[in-house]
Design brief:
Chain A: This is ER membrane protein complex subunit 1. Chain A: It is found in: Endoplasmic reticulum membrane. Chain A: Keywords: Endoplasmic reticulum, Glycoprotein, Membrane, Signal, Transmembrane, Transmembrane helix. The complex is a heterodimer of chains A (891) and B (234). In chain A, 12% of the residues lie in helices and 44% in strands. With 891 residues, chain A is mainly beta. Among the domains of chain A are: 83 residues, Thrombin, subunit H (Beta Barrel); 117 residues, no CATH class; 95 residues; 89 residues, Thrombin, subunit H (Beta Barrel); 47 residues, no CATH class; 79 residues, no CATH class; 33 residues. In chain A, the strands form 16 sheets. In chain A, strands 49, 50, 54, 55, 56 and 57 form a six-stranded antiparallel beta sheet that branches. In chain A, strands 35, 38, 39, 40 and 41 form a five-stranded antiparallel beta sheet that branches. Chain A is globular. Chain B is an alpha+beta fold and 234 residues long. Chain B folds into two domains: 129 residues, Sandwich (Immunoglobulin-like), CATH 2.60.40; 76 residues, no CATH class. Chain B contains eight helices and eleven strands. In chain B, helix 6 runs antiparallel to helix 7. The N terminus of chain B is likely disordered. Classes of the chains: A mainly beta (891), B alpha+beta (234).
Chain lengths: 891, 234
């Protein structure tokens, strides 16, 4: 017992040390919102209802939310299960809000309070059939339909008012051939047998006693139509659907055994509104006016007379809209539009003004890149002075005088104010531009200071690549804004949605301007690399490898430049099943680069789960670690190192996690380890001479972190240039593992300008917090060395403490963290952090505190008072001393 | 601190059971629900009117979710038999997680989560009763300038104490009692340090005899007068 208590005491002491150490890193309460911001999103809207001045929405991100109809702000939001597996199936707004979400055969039925978003009730439906099914609510009865093709309908009804009483019905329906030719409208299930005029229309009322199937020919409803006919759902007070052909649709009502077609035609995107004075139909059309894009046509529901056509101030750059919901209150009609690029907006009639727009594309970011801003015009003109080769002395003098006069004027007339509003670089690089590419193919530039969108650009019909199950669009900074007269340049690579071939988009990240626009490539992209060499225009070429191992360069004129370096250029590729291939470019010619396979590595049958290289901009400041005996233990810093994690199934150990460190040039495995009975999710971080990875230990049912650090030893083999071929000794590896009392969903490491500052791991947790863990806590302790405060070493403890002060987003929970991106500021102590997921959160972190900046609570008043006090006191004493001396003289 | 001593033998027998229950999770057909209730702090309702909607129940790091009803109760549906960590998250409050084990027969057991000693069992009641441990402190308290901080600064103390000796001690000497004491001390110290004591006694003599002092000052005044007179003479 005594030993137990002593252990506890030891832990307590360690904990105290660490808490003292960590408390220094927390935020002050008055710093909230000073340099961080958060934007909340909901995802692409699937269902929307108006509800007394509020909008209830259900989205494809399996989220339900309540928005303020005045400004589009979120009143409450509930994140349901993971949208990759669960999808929202129904959102029904009645007395309470009813949502059904789930997988193919398991659903959660939940009712919510409209005002607060509090859960009222929850129950589940599960079925043993794995076929797509539909839900609807008619008069307090929840109907769940499984259409069995060419056979029957399995219908389960639940009486929502009477304790969810269950009733199972089987409706024979051999006429169902394709569920895409069927619609469910209220309690009617309606199908067409063929997509042309010879087809038949079948419908059945599920709630009727007899389940009589009614059959009508399409010809009897539509008359003579030669085009293809489609059946589309239509929301109306009566059971109704649309029969659409050639871009025109007819509204058809069914009621018992009668089928009524409205005499008029509408657009397939039409929607009805019954809560105004008289029922109306709204539909979107291309605008007649050349300056406007979209107009809303309003028709009378009964007579089909055109009431009005309102042209919208539809912004350029948004995708094609569809109407989601409408509502009329007094004389105002609100129309909700959802676009193909996931924007969600409210249009108010009758003037057609867009009240607000929510860019929901930002709820699904796939790639983030930070960009430095250009210098101000004035600074640029000073730079020009040295560049312009003006021969005359006088012109140079006048230029100099001119710029200095301008400098003076900005100094006097508040140049500071101007630079705050415009996108101009600041001294410390704290103001940057974040360019993000979203899954839907829209690119945004976001200001780090305010979080506002600077520009956006929609790339039509593109989709991200899938790398190890993760969506990724490639974004490379070819030229930063540092080279003043030349604009910054950036390249984006994605996949065409239809052909699968590459799409390239070259643009200026600061303005969003693109000279060439979207360029379609005639090959698939297998790999793309930003080369580290600059051409005479300071442009870094991008090397694209096609799926047939052809090599392309952008700009293509850089071939000669790259050829010079070809003997030092290597690349690697990997596929999902675990084959690594290394390539060299030694067989390139002056006008064509050619890849030559150099090594291959098979990791099968293991499944590849993570591949990480170091950040290309990372700098390692100190070459070694100073040991207590004053000797240096040199780090093994190999820039070509690839960290790989695989998981394989094992009969004895269930899952085995293996981690390899592979040299990308030679294919040499420098380190390999495995963890038995460990499974994913694996998050891997690779920096300097170390890696950290997280995994779930099935044996102890806990999440663990493992850290491995590589050292060359007490002598450095080559201090100037590193070569992968000069291997004399394998690096020494120190490793240690820890317990993380939380579940990580994303992990990254901070990055600073020169790498002097300590490293922090930023770990996104499942609870929506992002926590910072000092690398010092994870760094493997050397076995034979003492560890204590004198050695600036924290004694090993198995469980990593996660104090709430280390949560960088404090109480601002981030919905479904997907990734964390970091970028260095020009101030060594600071790095920018953007956390993305359903929400966006930006902040700055300073792992070693802001040692190069005065604290913001620095007491200027105090120091001024003290200084003036000292000056006054010294003069006073001087005077007094003189007086005294005089008196002495008189004595 | 809890007393783990008598629980350890019990724990050993139960963990064996726990380990096997994990192995038996193959029976997919039986689905179970974890139930529980969240007990807010006493000041909960006053600060957060809608805490139920902001509180989430995560099972196994968000694999399964539970939402909190108005009365604080929650149910996590559709779980196969196995071992689960139930965590309650609220932006303002911290809750302690619990591990719930459901065996293949549908028996429930809840215990405290201990990642280091995974075999240790401290049973907690099931259905779960999750109590807020306290308000989460995200922020560091900013240091405020206080006069006491300045005064107790070691540098200031080092400065102030000698100053005290210089300023106050001579004043104290004026006190007749201390004077006597001092004299006694001097008498005692006379033998050891004759020169010093002479000096001190001379000094004291000059300051302690008021009559002499006045005379002296008068003398000084007369000296001064003499000086001026001399100058006038010149």
């Amino acid at each position: 017992m005594a030993s137990f208590q002593s252990i506890m005491k030891k832990y307590l002491i360690i904990l105290v040390i660490i808490l003292n150490f960590q408390i220094l890193l927390a935020l002050y309460e008055d710093q909230v919102g000073k340099f961080d911001w958060k934007r909340s999103f909901i995802g692409k809207v699937k269902y929307a209802h108006f509800d007394s001045g509020k909008i209830i929405v259900g989205t494809e991100e399996n989220t339900i939310a309540c928005l303020n109809s005045r400004n589009g702000n979120i009143i409450w939001r509930q994140l349901l299960e993971d949208p990759r597996e669960h999808q929202l199936q129904l959102l029904h707004s009645d007395r309470d809000l009813l949502s059904i979400s789930g997988t193919i055969n398991n659903w959660f039925v939940r009712t919510w309070d409209h005002h607060t978003g509090t859960l009222l009730s929850e129950w589940t439906i599960s079925s043993d059939k794995s076929i797509p099914s539909e839900f609807t609510v008619v008069k307090g009865i929840l109907i769940h339909i499984f259409p069995n093709l060419n056979s029957h309908l399995d219908v389960v009804t639940y009486n929502l008012d009477e304790n969810n009483q269950k009733n199972t019905i089987k409706v024979p329906a051999p006429w169902i051939t394709d569920t895409s030719n069927c619609v469910l409208t209220q309690s009617y299930y309606i199908c067409i047998s063929k997509n042309d005029i010879s087809g038949q229309l079948y419908y059945v009322d599920i709630l009727s006693e007899s389940h009589n199937v009614h059959v009508k020919t399409l010809h009897s409803i539509l008359g003579d139509v030669t085009d293809l006919i489609e059946i589309l759902p239509f929301d109306d007070i009566l059971p109704a659907f649309l029969l659409s052909s050639n871009g025109q649709a007819s509204v058809v009502h069914v009621d018992k055994d009668t089928v009524n077609r409205k005499i008029y035609k509408v657009m397939p995107n039409a929607i009805t509104n019954h809560n105004g004075e008289k029922p109306l139909i709204y539909q979107l059309e291309p605008a007649v006016h050349p300056d406007k894009l979209v107009q809303i046509r309003v028709k009378d529901y009964v007579t089909c007379q055109d009431e009005m056509a309102i042209e919208l101030d539809y912004p350029i750059g948004l995708g094609v809209p569809t109407i989601v919901a409408t509502a009329t209150k007094n004389t105002l009609t609100d129309i909700l539009l959802s676009t193909t690029d996931n924007a969600f907006m409210l249009v108010r009639l009758s003037d057609g003004k867009i009240m607000w727009t929510r860019e929901e594309a930002l709820s699904n970011i796939v790639t983030v890149e930070f960009f430095e801003l250009p210098v101000s015009e004035l600074d640029a003109s000073i730079e020009n002075e040295f560049k312009a080769s003006s021969s005359s002395v006088f012109s140079m003098l006048s230029h100099r005088l001119n710029t200095q006069a301008k400098q003076l004027s900005t100094l006097i007339f508040g140049g500071q104010l101007m630079s705050k509003n415009s996108l101009v670089r600041d001294e410390f690089g704290l103001h940057k531009l974040i360019v993000v590419a979203t899954k839907v193919g829209k690119v945004f530039a976001i200001d780090t200071l305010s979080g506002s969108i600077v520009w956006s650009y929609r790339l039509p019909n593109v989709e991200p690549f899938s790398i190890l199950g993760e969506d990724k669009i490639l974004l490379f900074a070819q030229r930063t804004a540092r080279y003043a007269p030349l604009p910054a340049e950036c390249i984006l690579l994605a996949k065409d949605k239809y052909t699968g071939k590459g799409v390239m988009f070259q643009f200026d990240p600061i303005t969003g301007y693109s000279k060439r626009g979207v360029k379609k490539l005639d090959h698939r992209i297998a790999q793309a690399i930003l080369l580290p060499y600059e051409d005479d225009q300071h442009l870094k070429p991008v090397l694209i490898i096609s799926s047939t191992n052809e090599v392309y360069l952008h700009p293509s004129c850089a071939v000669a430049e790259v050829y010079k370096q070809a003997s030092r250029l290597y690349t690697y590729s990997f596929d999902e099943i675990g084959t690594f291939k290394g390539f060299s470019f030694i067989h390139s010619t002056k006008d064509k680069l050619r890849m030559t396979p150099s090594w291959e590595l098979q990791l099968q049958p293991a499944k590849l789960v993570a591949v990480k290289t170091k950040h290309p901009n990372e700098r390692v400041h100190s070459q070694g670690r100073v040991l207590p005996d004053r000797s240096v233990y040199y780090k093994y810093v190999n820039p070509n190192l690839i960290a790989v994690a695989t998981i394989s199934d094992d009969l004895v150990h269930k899952h085995v996690l293996s981690v390899y460190l592979i040299d990308g040039v030679t294919g040499l495995i420098l380190y390999a380890t495995s963890h038995k009975r460990c499974k994913g999710p694996v998050h891997l971080v690779h920096s300097e001479n170390w890696i950290v990875y997280s995994y779930f230990n099935e044996r102890f049912r806990r999440t663990e972190f493992a850290a491995a650090e590589l050292y060359e030893g007490h002598v450095q083999s080559n201090s100037s240039v590193f070569s992968s071929y000069a291997v004399s000794l394998l690096p020494h590896v120190q490793s240690q593992s820890y317990i993380l009392p939380a579940s990580p969903v994303s992990m990254t490491v901070t990055l600073t300008e020169r790498g002097i500052t300590n490293k922090f791991l930023l770990v996104g947790l499942s609870n929506g917090g992002v926590i910072e863990i000092p690398w010092l806590l994870l760094q493997p302790r050397l076995n034979d060395l003492p560890c204590g405060p004198e050695e600036s070493c924290i004694p090993y403890m198995p469980e990593i403490p996660l104090p709430s002060e280390a949560v960088i987003n404090y109480n601002q929970t981030i919905g479904r963290v997907k990734g964390i991106e970091v970028a260095p500021a020009r101030l060594e102590s600071t790095s920018h952090v953007l956390v993305y997921g359903l929400d966006l959160f930006y902040t700055k972190v300073a792992p070693s505190k802001t040692f190069d900046m005065l604290k913001e609570d620095f007491d200027y008043m105090m120091i001024i008072l003290v200084l003036t006090g000292l000056v006054v006191a010294s003069y006073l004493t001087k005077y007094l001393a003189a007086k005294k001396a005089l008196k002495q003289m008189w004595k | 601190m809890y007393s783990p001593f008598f629980l350890i033998p019990l724990a050993l027998s139960l963990t064996a059971h726990a380990e096997t229950s994990v192995e038996e999770e193959s029976d997919e057909n039986n689905r179970y629900n974890i139930e529980g209730r969240i007990f807010p702090l006493s000041d909960y309702q006053t600060t957060q009117t809608n805490w139920q909607a902001n509180t989430k129940v995560h099972v196994n790091g968000g694999e399964h979710l539970g939402f909190v009803k108005r009365d604080g109760s929650f149910v996590v549906h559709n779980l196969p038999a196995g071992s689960y960590v139930v965590e309650v998250f609220n932006p303002e409050y911290t809750f302690e997680p619990a591990r719930v084990e459901i065996n293949s027969k549908g028996k429930f057991r809840a215990r405290k989560v201990n990642h280091i000693r995974t075999s240790e069992v401290i049973v907690v009641p099931y259905p779960l009763r999750m109590k807020a441990l306290g308000k989460t402190r995200y922020f560091q308290v900013r240091e405020q300038w206080r006069i006491t901080d300045l005064l107790f600064n070691p540098m200031v103390m080092m400065m102030v104490l000698p100053l005290l000796f210089i300023m106050v001690l001579p004043k104290m000497m004026n006190d007749p009692d201390t004077k006597k004491e001092m004299e006694q001390i001097q008498n005692m110290a006379k033998f050891e340090l004759p020169e010093m004591s002479d000096m001190v006694s001379n000094f004291l003599a000059s300051s302690t005899m008021p009559s002499e002092k006045t005379e002296k000052t008068q003398g000084m005044a007369s000296k001064k007068n003499a000086k001026t007179r001399k100058r006038i003479d010149k």
